[in-house]
Amino acid sequence: MPHGFSWATLLFGPEHVSDQMVETTGIHLVPLFHASLSALILILLVLLVRSRILAKGDDFMPDGSITVRNIFELIAEWLLGLMEGIIGPHYRKYVPLIFGCFFYILVANLFGLVPHFAPATDRWSVTVSMALVVFFATHIYGVGANGPGYFKHFISPVWPPSPILWAMSIIYLPIELISHLARVLSLSLRLMANMIADHTVLTIFLMLTAPLIPVIFTGLGTMICLIQAFIFTMLTIIYIGTAVHHEEEGEEHH
Question: pTM for the full model?
Answer without folding.
Answer: 0.80
